[in-house]
Amino acid sequence: MPGDLPDYYFRIRENGAAVFRVDTENRQRRIELEEIATVNVKNGNIKPHGDRKLTAAEQVVIRDWLTDRQRVLADRDVDDILRAVDHLNLTAQWAQSRATDDQLQAVTDALLLAMHDLRSTLVRRKAERLMRGEAAREAGE
After folding, report:
1. Cα distances (Å, whole numbers) of residue 90 to 84, 99, 137
2. Do the Cβ atoms of 22 and 7 come closer than 8 Å?
3. φ, ψ for residue 21 (rounded to 5)?
4. Distance of CA 48 to the CA centre of its chain
5. What number of other Cβ atoms are within 10 A of residue 45's Cβ?
6. Which domain of life is it from (predicted)?
7. In the Cβ-directed half-sphere of 30, how many Cα atoms lie within 13 Å?
């Protein structure tokens, strides 16, 4: 069993993780977790636990985990948005084919405001991207 366990364990938290070193080489032959650091995924901060100094190898493991975790979370964000697109399509189908007048009364204003806000944001951000692309092309000429 000791060979099957990783050397480090990352306990996921809301904004990152607590990092533990996994110890199976002790007299009781039990698995022990020694907290060595905390990681903030949003800003990339790594804080050693207590007075501990992280080794170069520990820092590499933590930074690799941080990079992987940020990628996973970014991928999840995109997947969540694509699911929202699917859900909007299902909502349109529901509104057209199955919704009662009372159900539509309950959701119409909230949906219209949310969709207006989303559309305004998407149009503004697309215009910003187009302007940056145009400025980059002009700078390259």
Report:
1. 10, 12, 40
2. yes
3. -90, 130
4. 23
5. 13
6. Bacteria
7. 4
